[in-house]
Structures are given as C-alpha cells and as structure tokens.
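Ticket #4471: structure export looks truncated?
Reporter: QA, pipeline team
Priority: medium

Steps to reproduce: submit the single chain below to the structure queue and open the exported record.
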Amino acid sequence: MIRRSLLSAPVRLTALLLVLVFVATGCHRGDKKKDADEGAPVEQLYEKSHKLMEGGNWSGAETSFKRLIAQYPYGPYTEQAMIESAYAQYKAGKNDDAVSSIDRFIRTYPTNGNRDTVFLRRVWSLDPSRRDLSTPRQAYADFTIVTERYPNSRYAADARQRMIELRDVFAQHELDNALYYARRGAWVSAAGRANYLLETYPQSAFQYDAVAVLGESYTHIGNKTLADDARRVLELNQPDHPWLTGDWPKYPWMIRKLNPFAGEKSVATGQSNATMSRRK
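Actual output as written to the record:
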C-alpha cells in the first residue's frame, strides 16, 4: 500500500500541474478578451459604440460609450459619447440614469453648442400622468431655458409647443384637485382650486371645466350671483359643455370612495392618474 501511494504521487502532482496550467491559460485568455478595447483609438471606440446603438443594443452601447469616456475623459468624441450614452440609457428604460448623465454633461461642458439638444433630452422620459409633478415641472424649466437662451434654435418651436402641453398637464392636475374637493362637498376649497387654475393657467384646455366647477361650487355655497356668472360664461364660450345640462362631472363608482386602496380617478378624463386627453 505504501509503495502504491509513493508511485502515484508523481502522477497526481503532474495532473495538478496540468490543471493549474489550464486554469491559468483560460484566465489569461479571458483577460485578453475582456481588455480587447484597452488602448484602442478613440475613433474606433466611438464607431463601435455608435454601431451598437444603431443596432438597438442599448445596454451594449451604454457600456461601450462608458469605456470610451473612461479612457478618453475629454475631447469631441467624448462629448458626443456622453450625449449618446444618455440616449442609450433612456432607450434601455434607465430614465433616472439618463437624466443624471445629461446633468453631468451640462456641468462638464457648460458652453457646448448642443446644450439646446441636451435640455430637450432631459425630458424624454416625461410621463404627464404622474401625480408627482416634480418631473414635469423640471421639464417645463428646461424647455424655458431652450426658448429663452436659444430662441433661434431649431428646437425652440418644439419646446414652446411642449410648454403649452405641460401647462395643460398642470391645469388638469389642479382641476382634478378641485373635483376631489367637490366630490366630498368641500365647495369652498373646490372653488379656490378652480380660481387658481384660471388665474395661473389661462387659456388652458381645462379652463371651462374650471368655470363649471365654480358654477357648481357657488350653487352649493348659495352664491347665486357668482353661480349665474359662471353659467353665463359657459353659455357664451362653450355652450355644449355637459355641466349646463347637468351631465358633468360624472364621478367614479361610489364604492371607490369607500376603498382606501382604490386611488383616485380623474373626473376630467375618467382615467386613473389623470392622463390628459381633453381637447381644446
């Protein structure tokens, strides 16, 4: 038994050495593959990244652009890579990462000629149906920068149009709040919200809905003069408004009011989370 163990020891040692050599070779090959882009020219890295993005490989494009930026922190290719990296993140559904990348670009290149493009790209991910208006308000501020600082930009007209759309989003939010109070019989609060909407967002798509809320609120409060004024405004400007015939607002099923987890539906649109669909 002792002799067999002594004779087999060199065999085991040889096998162990072969295994170590194989593992080391494999690791070395893996490292070479991993560092294939190490030291590559910036033009080559950009072209590779851009082709990945054109092919719809958003995750691969993001990784490749980041590698370019890490190896070449400054230069025209790096500036473009930062913008396109943000776009790849947006297309991959990484909206917060995209906004962070764009903010980093703005801080790094404060005089870049593409800043009008960048401010627009901050709001690619805008969802106007959100109850939290912090993102739409930031978008509105960014569009304001485009229109005021770059009035001759090719994006200025588009920015102005989007600002109008965002004002309607804000107006609808106020209308939903007014109707929330009206539904619960808080008529003074409902009238206050409607007046705020009219004063802050005049000419919005929901201005006559706000007038209807005033008419309903003043009717319940007992102020006949103001209620009649509201009715007269509607008859002159939107005579087909359903409030004039008693068909507005139509509240959701009352059982929702008893369910604390049901959330609120927009009475203005009949949809959850107030997706804007009202026409002017």
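Status: closed, not a bug. The export was complete when the record was re-opened. Leaving a note from the reviewer for reference: The radius of gyration is 31 Å.
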